[in-house]
Structure formats: structure tokens, C-alpha cells
Design goal:
The structure is a single chain. This protein is of the alpha/beta class. It folds into two domains: 111 residues, Cobalt-precorrin-4 Transmethylase, domain 1, CATH 3.40.1010.10; 130 residues, 2-Layer Sandwich (Methyltransferase, Cobalt-precorrin-4 Transmethylase, Domain 2). Helices cover 30% and strands 25% of the residues. The chain has eight helices and 13 strands. The strands form three sheets. Strands 3-2-4-1-5 form a five-stranded parallel β-sheet, sandwiched between helices. Strands 7-8-11-9-10 form a five-stranded mixed β-sheet, with helices on both faces. The protein has a three-stranded mixed β-sheet with strand order 6-13-12. Strand 2, helix 2 and strand 3 form a beta-alpha-beta unit. The longest helix is centred in the first third of the chain and has 13 residues. The chain is elongated, with a radius of gyration of 20 Å. The structure holds S-adenosyl-L-homocysteine (SAH). The site of S-adenosyl-L-homocysteine has 25 residues, from helix 5, strand 9 and strand 11. Its EC number is 2.1.1.131. Pathway: Cofactor biosynthesis; adenosylcobalamin biosynthesis. Keywords: Cobalamin biosynthesis, Methyltransferase, S-adenosyl-L-methionine, Transferase.
Length: 253
Amino acid sequence: MTGSLTVVGLGPGDPDLLTDSARAALDRAQDLIGYIPYVARVPERPGLVRHASDNRVEIDRARHALELAASGRHVAVVSGGDPGVFAMAAAVFEAVDHGDPAWRQLAITVEPGITAMLAAAARLGAPLGGDFCALSLSDNLKPWEVVTARLEAVLRADLVVALYNPISKARPWQLGAALEIAAGIRAAETPVAFARAVRRPDEAIRVMTLAEAREAPADMATLVLIGASTTRLIPRGVGQHPFVYTARSVAAR
Ligand code: SAH
């Protein structure tokens, strides 16, 4: 088999945050596969066939990519942010795991990208300076009881929590329920950040307390960060959001 498959992370949005290595993989590709808005971020050029698909068909998309690569094509599968974070890389390896044994011989590589959590953290200051974790609030691929059990565990462990996929049209109430759980475990003045469309033209960053956060609007392009007991705010001027950082040192209990 002479084809190849590269799973490429496009970063949060700004083309300057795409790695050179990812850009080179996109330049080599003959076929481009991914969710419509991510495929749209890659400029058209002669010799590049674009296969944009809807969001909910990740495994089909992965199989399609593997079939094309097995037929000798150079294929790039694209994801926003990092492709290994709640994105296509896991779908590709799941398809390999359960698919045609010949796919294991393919040249499959993953090009990392800057994930939303890191892009948002950089805008805020240093909220991930201590221990942290990332959770997807989506219950499309796991039961809601699993989401809440994990959320409670990490809130009790005093980790900073980054919430991906906080809300969508099909999941309008989950973020409110998650913040309710957080309010039952963490102090009302805990900093919470809503980082929307980070590194895109419509970026919006809001920082508030957990008590205020329950009223805050969010959408599919928002990453929500819930601070730990060691997360601090540094107020700044009018119209500027405060810096948010999490101290690296934690007092003995
Ligand atoms: N692979 C992606 C995450 C896919 S899950 C990554 O590594 O970033 C999709 C979720 O990521 C969105 O619902 C949102 O919570 C978050 N997200 C992706 N891009 C974002 C951006 N530019 N700003 C804020 N959040 C973003």
C-alpha cells in the first residue's frame, strides 16, 4: 500500500497557530476529509478533493479515509484544535481496530494542534498552572450519568476543569446542570471563564464567579473553565477581563 493517512489538527482558528508540520501534511494531501467547517478552513487548490461531511458520522468518515488511503491516495483528515482531543484521531484508530486488518499496515500519522483549552488558557493568563483535567459535556457518546459522576469526582479533587462541548441545540440544559453540580461542591466565588471562538474574529472572553456563571450564555464554540481553590483573579481596567491564574503551589492539608 503506497497511500497514507494523516490526521491533522488545525488549531483553534487563526492560521498562524497551525504548525508548519500540519501545513506540510495538508499540502501533500490529495483528499481532505472532515466536518464541514473544518474542511472549509483549508484553502482550495487543484489536485485536492474535498469530502466535507456532517458532524455525527465520525466512524463512517474514518472508514472512508482509510479506504481511500488503502487505494493509494494521500489523505488528510482534519479536526479543529488537536485531533486527539474529542476529535477524529480516536475515530480513525477505532476504525483501524475493528476494520480491515490490512489497514494496520498503512502509514497513519497524527499532526498535533493547539487544543481549545490551551488557546483559551493563554488568553486568560495561566489558569492551568496547577493540576487540571478536560471533560466533554456531550452525552452523545456516553451516558449523562457518566458525565456527572466524572464531573463530581474532579470537582472534589480540586482540579481546574475545562468543559468542552458545553451546549448544543440538542443538549440545551446540560451546562446549567453541570454548573449546578459545581456550585454544590465549590465556593460561590470560584472563578469561571467562558472563552468563545478563541483566536477567531468573533472571539469573546468573559470571566465571572461560579455564582454568576449559572446565568451566563454559552454556545457550541465556547470552552468553559471552572477554577480550583488555588485559581486567582487579577482585576484590570474597565473593559478588560481580569487575568486568571492558578498558583503552582498547593498548601499541605
Ligand atoms: N479537537 C478540538 C475539540 C473538539 S470538541 C480541540 O482540540 O480544540 C468541540 C468543542 O471544543 C467546542 O464545543 C468548544 O467547547 C471547544 N472549542 C473548539 N474550538 C474552540 C475555540 N476556538 N474557542 C473556544 N472553544 C473551542
